[in-house]
Structure formats: structure tokens, C-alpha cells
Design goal:
Length: about 325
């Protein structure tokens, strides 16, 4: 009702009431948010969003370039991916790069158009402004969120551009409207069917994910952990775990699972090296600690095995250890 009031209120009803509706909606949203999640804050890790470790300047410049990727994918949905984590999108460290300057030009042009048509077509600045506002909290410009980029974050803002695009098509000659509109529907239906095939099961999803995100440590880990390791395809699993730790050397989960693959192949010494590397980066990684103890026990090093188990007991509960006995 507050939004309806804002849309329909007459400007002469009073500036206080007009802007008060916006404030009321914001307060209502904040109260609902607190009721839902309280004061809890999600921990943002570098693996999911490298911007959490970036300087303010790098974060803003990278967020600006990511917006260009969003705009491109909305118009040309080719090269879609379910993963953009470290280090698929490199940090932007200089303003004087083509992508940054190009995006600044786009923003400047959009602002100029919105100003020019503000009286004749007021819905244009409204839609452009709404696009910016809807992306405000998820753009990483204000603060780092749980991911550096996610196509799901475009759902709400894309409605604004879809309305603008639909209006643009209606401005074409009548005969062109049907041809252009029909062609767009067919093309986007084809893209949708192609993406649906990717999401059928793990065997189609994870290989497609890593193919679209070759520089993502998380994607290489996921395809090894979810597809190749369960199927006993040790060479493929090893290759992707190695790629994951090459991209992100301090990736304890990947080191731990690489050790599991080596153990299953009979290379216990190699497994011990992998587990110890995982613990080097995360000393309280319970699964790696327990797996290390198992490897020592199989080699007859009972004293070292006992030490590993005792340390594991000291950092986590019995239930957590049993749940982590085989893999992470």
C-alpha cells in the first residue's frame, strides 16, 4: 500500500508525505529483515567472493566491470555459468582499462538519456533508476556479499531492462514488431532449453560448470568431488583437484580430497603429504586430521595416528569426527 501511495500521490500533497512513504517502506523492510535473520551476518569467504580481501578501489572497479558482464548476458545470454568464484573474475586494479571506461560510458549515456526524456517519457528514468537501486545491495559496491557475481542476482533488475526493451520494440514499424519480437522469443527459448539440459543431473551440471569457469578453484573441486571421485575416475579427479589447488593453494578441502584419491589408489605417502598440506593451511580441518591418522595407522605408525586422533578430538566433537571419517 505504501508503494501504491508513492506511485499515485499528487505532488502537491506535500513533500513530507511523498518522501515519507519511501522512508516508511525502507523501515518496514528493515524490520522484516531483522525479524527473519536477526543480527546474524553471513561470513563472506574469499573462495566465494575475492572482493572481501580487496581494497575499496579494487572492489568498486571490479564491481563496475561485473555490471558490464551482467548487461552483456542480459542481451546476449551466451557463456552463462553457475560459478564465478575465485579466480574466475580477476580483480580490476586500474581505472584506465577498457572494461571500466566502457562501463563508465554506458552509465553516462544512460544518465544523459534519462535526463533528456524525463518529461516526455518519465518511465525511462524510473526504470533505469530502479535498475540501479535493485542492484545496489548486491553489486558489491556498498559492501561485499556472498558472491562476486551470480546470475540469479539479475532476476529483479532485469525486469526493468525487459520493460525498456519491450517498449523499444513497440517503437519499430508495426510489421517489424512481430518479426523482431518473434525472433527474440525463439532465440531466448532456444537458450533456455540449452540451459535446462545442463541442469539435468550432476553428470551434466558439474562438467558444464567447470567448462564455463576454467579459472574457478571451486568449480574444479566440485566436478572432482561430485562426479569423478564417486565414479572411481581417479585420473580425472586428481587432475581437477590439482587444478583447484594451483588456482588457490590454500584450499584445504581440495588438498584433503586429493589425499583421499591418493589413498584409494594405494599411495599412502602421497596421501599423507596432501593431508599435511591441508592442515598447513587450516590446522583445525577435522576431516584432514582424521584422514591423516588413518593413513598413519595403516602404515603402522600408531603413535602418530594417536596424536592425530587426539588433536582431532580436541578441536571438534565426536559426532563431527564420525561424520567426517571418510571425506569432507
Amino acid at each position: 500500500m505504501a508503494v501504491w501511495f508513492v506511485v499515485t500521490v499528487r505532488r502537491d500533497a506535500g513533500r513530507f508525505l511523498f518522501w515519507g512513504a519511501y522512508v516508511g517502506v525502507a523501515v518496514m523492510w528493515w524490520m522484516l529483515r531483522r525479524a527473519a535473520i536477526g543480527d546474524g551476518m553471513q561470513a563472506v569467504v574469499m573462495l566465494d567472493n575475492p572482493l572481501v580481501m580487496a581494497s575499496v578501489g579494487e572492489r568498486l572497479l571490479t564491481a563496475l566491470v561485473v555490471q558490464w558482464h551482467y548487461l552483456f548476458l542480459q542481451g546476449v545470454p551466451v557463456g552463462l555459468s553457475s560459478d564465478y568464484s575465485y579466480a574466475q573474475i580477476p580483480l580490476v586494479q586500474s581505472f584506465w582499462t577498457f572494461d571500466v571506461l566502457f562501463m563508465v560510458g554506458i552509465l553516462g549515456f544512460a544518465g544523459w538519456v534519462a535526463w533528456r526524456v524525463r518529461h516526455t517519457h518519465p518511465f525511462v528514468p524510473f526504470l533505469l533508476g530502479s535498475y540501479v537501486l535493485l542492484f545496489g545491495l548486491t553489486s558489491n559496491a556498498l559492501l561485499p556479499i556472498g558472491t562476486v557475481m551470480g546470475e540469479r542476482l539479475v532476476y529483479a533488475p532485469s525486469m526493468c531492462l525487459c520493460v525498456l526493451g519491450g517498449w523499444g520494440v513497440t517503437c519499430l514499424p508495426r510489421d517489424w514488431v512481430w518479426w523482431v519480437g518473434g525472433a527474440l522469443v525463439l532465440v531466448y527459448c532456444g537458450v533456455t532449453l540449452d540451459r535446462l539440459a545442463v541442469w539435468q543431473n550432476a553428470q551434466t551440471f558439474y562438467p558444464a560448470q567447470v567448462a564455463s569457469a576454467l579459472n574457478s578453484a571451486k568449480a574444479h573441486y566440485a566436478v572432482a568431488h561430485e562426479v569423478y571421485q564417486p565414479a572411481g575416475e581417479w585420473d580425472q579427479a586428481t587432475e581437477h583437484y590439482r587444478r583447484a589447488v594451483k588456482i588457490l593453494p590454500n584450499y584445504p578441502d581440495a588438498w584433503n580430497n586429493l589425499g583421499l584419491v591418493k589413498k584409494d589408489r594405494g599411495d599412502l605417502m602421497g596421501a599423507i603429504v596432501a593431508y599435511e598440506t591441508a592442515l598447513k593451511w587450516h590446522n583445525e580441518h577435522v576431516a584432514a586430521r582424521v584422514n591423516l591418522g588413518q593413513a598413519f595407522q595403516r602404515l603402522g605408525g600408531n603413535d602418530k595416528a594417536i596424536d592425530a586422533y587426539q588433536i582431532a578430538l580436541s578441536v571438534d566433537s565426536i559426532h563431527r569426527i564420525f561424520g567426517s571419517f571418510i571425506s569432507h
